[in-house]
């Protein structure tokens, strides 16, 4: 089956289950990326196997393995699960040639459309777990929200003097999320986080807000505005995409309405800027963030399946 046909059939199959998924183009080999193709039982699959490596002190290092092997997949034909199984087997052969067995700073990652259930069992059989989700919220979606006058809660734009508070909240969030494998607890994380937050706070209008509960700064939210989200906007069929970078609430303020007030404020900002959708990442296994975000109007769009180390 030709690569153009695979891409077209794959896009049509996904469009039938989720209208917010983007279209597909045939994969092309590039530097650090090869195209793998398999066929079985009248079905065919194409996979783009790529590798990304980051330095330990890079700004995005806390959120990923230092070496990520990624497989983007396109499936066509009547047996998508079976052909995915064959593609994963082919990719495993490739990984054994390029990845160090047992290296915990390597990860094998397969992004799958969340509503595409075909092949989930095969992913598990190959040692993958659904780790991280890209969730989507259409603009101005009507969801239950805290009233604007949540007792004791005041939201204000962050200032340079809030750096220490922002770092403390960010580190508390990072420590909690590290339990679920979506972030990494390494030496130097606090310095990386502090540098990123300091850069945000230097902007004339920092994209970060602080929530005070009876005068105490106990929560924060940060966003990326439409026009700043080119790195992820291709993952959704929308013209103007906002991104909710992080939302942190101190443990002492949980269940107080601070988190909902912050999320409502961020959505209002992005809705007023004309965002068609808002995206965010969350850990699939997190028992706090997963129900919280879906109560705010989000739903899964992409699920990132991960195996770490990449080769066992």
From TrEMBL:
<dbReference type="InterPro" id="IPR050832">
    <property type="entry name" value="Bact_Acetyltransf"/>
</dbReference>
<dbReference type="InterPro" id="IPR016181">
    <property type="entry name" value="Acyl_CoA_acyltransferase"/>
</dbReference>
<protein>
    <submittedName>
        <fullName>Acetyltransferase</fullName>
    </submittedName>
</protein>
<feature type="domain" description="N-acetyltransferase">
    <location>
        <begin position="153"/>
        <end position="312"/>
    </location>
</feature>
<keyword id="KW-0808">Transferase</keyword>
<keyword id="KW-0012">Acyltransferase</keyword>
<dbReference type="Pfam" id="PF00583">
    <property type="entry name" value="Acetyltransf_1"/>
</dbReference>
<dbReference type="GO" id="GO:0016747">
    <property type="term" value="F:acyltransferase activity, transferring groups other than amino-acyl groups"/>
</dbReference>
<dbReference type="InterPro" id="IPR000182">
    <property type="entry name" value="GNAT_dom"/>
</dbReference>
């Amino acid at each position: 089956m030709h690569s153009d046909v695979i891409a077209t059939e794959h896009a049509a199959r996904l469009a039938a289950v989720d209208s917010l998924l983007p279209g597909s183009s045939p994969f092309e080999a590039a530097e650090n990326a090869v195209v793998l193709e398999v066929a079985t039982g009248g079905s065919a699959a194409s996979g783009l196997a790529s590798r990304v490596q980051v330095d330990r002190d890079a700004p995005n290092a806390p959120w990923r393995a230092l070496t990520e092997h990624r497989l983007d997949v396109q499936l066509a034909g009547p047996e998508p699960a079976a052909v995915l199984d064959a593609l994963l087997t082919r990719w495993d052969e490739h990984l054994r040639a390029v990845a160090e067995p047992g290296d915990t700073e390597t990860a094998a990652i397969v992004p799958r459309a969340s509503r595409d259930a075909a092949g989930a069992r095969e992913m598990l059989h190959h040692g993958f777990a659904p780790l991280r989700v890209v969730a989507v919220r259409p603009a101005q979606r009507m969801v239950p929200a805290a009233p604007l006058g949540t007792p004791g809660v005041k939201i204000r734009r962050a200032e340079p003097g809030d750096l220490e508070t922002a770092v403390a909240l960010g580190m508390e969030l990072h420590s909690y999320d590290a339990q679920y494998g979506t972030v990494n607890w390494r030496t130097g994380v606090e310095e990386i986080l502090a540098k990123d937050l300091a850069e945000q706070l230097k902007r004339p209008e920092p994209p970060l807000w602080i929530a005070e509960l009876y005068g105490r700064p106990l929560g924060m939210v940060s966003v990326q505005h439409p026009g700043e989200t080119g790195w992820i906007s291709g993952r959704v069929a929308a013209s103007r995409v906002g991104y909710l970078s992080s939302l942190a609430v101190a443990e002492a303020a949980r269940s107080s309405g601070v988190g909902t007030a912050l999320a409502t404020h961020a959505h209002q900002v992005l809705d007023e800027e004309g965002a068609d959708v808002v995206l965010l990442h969350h850990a699939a296994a997190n028992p706090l963030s997963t129900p919280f975000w879906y109560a705010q109007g989000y739903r899964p769009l992409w699920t990132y399946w991960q195996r770490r180390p990449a080769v066992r």
